[in-house]
Amino acid sequence: MREPWSRGYVKICGVTTVENAREVADCGVDAIGVNLAHSVRRVTRERAQDILDSLQGSILRTLVFAENSDEEILDCVRELEPDVVQLHGPLSDRLGRELRKRPVRVVKALNIEGGEFDSFVDASVDAVLLDGPRSGSGLAHSWDRLASRSFVVPVIAAGGLRAHNVAEVIVATNAWGVDCASGVEADAGVKSPAAVRDFVARARHAWGAEEGA
Question: 17-32, pLDDT tens digit by residue?
Answer without folding.
Answer: 999 999 999 999 999 9
